[in-house]
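Exercise: predict the structure of this protein bound to PXL.
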Amino acid sequence: MTELMEGPKRVAAIHDISGIGRCSLTVIIPVLSAMGVQVCPVPTAVLSAHTGYGEFVMRDLTDYITPALEHYKKLGTSFDCIYSGFLASSEQIDHCLDFFASYPDSFKVVDPVMGDNGTSYKTYTPELCARMSELAAVADLITPNLTEAAILLGEPYPDGAMDRNVLRSWLVRLSQLGPGQVVITSVPMRAGGISTVGYDRDKNSFWRITGEYVPISYSGSGDMFTSILIGGILGGDSLPIAMDRAEVFTQSAIKHTYSYGTPWTDGIMFEPLLGRLRADRDLCEYTEL
Ligand code: PXL
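Solution:
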């Protein structure tokens, strides 16, 4: 009889930790923990505040990832999933590649964090952006926003709403970089609304979840979305169900935050809502793209 693995699933999260502004590890750890998943943080940098503040203090931890990986290998630690995000240097691409290669059986998720709203983040060099496709190449799932999808494909940032067929071709082309599953977040659609769209190459299926437009984009929303997506998939969700789970919670956290009128830099307010991540509901809001 096959032995069932007991206990929470374990995710190595290769991201920065920012003191204020709710993003990366300060979102990923509580969200995945609330879903019953253990997060093992592998910090890429420590920042006083995320880069959207313009001014911040940053300590680059490029020399940390490889020794940490060596330690985990020595201990024989296994991870159900390895999830990379904000990186502090282009060398960290090599360190992430080593991490992924050391765990061939883990579910590999790359959030190719590089920018938003058509511009790249302050600390992201052209070299770091150019090398992000090397990480995408080894991933099972990537979750770029529209800006990051355009950078990965070498396309200009779309200056208007997107057509369904163009979007389908972007999803397929991103998958041709390597990953079997691709999810693009925050896409303004020509048919109306802001959508999250997904593609599963093995099933040759395209999915779309339509969200409500809120005129402000809070830091950490993408980290929240991808964390819930991972928690759902590790719990057995299909891609569209996990997308729906992630979209519904993230939307409700965005609306919750909006009601307080806080600046976008304060990030997505989720603390009062975390308990809901455990709640069951019908996850059938998706449609075919
Ligand atoms: O949420 C993406 C992100 C993660 N980490 C840092 C950031 C950002 C986006 O601004 O600045 C430090």
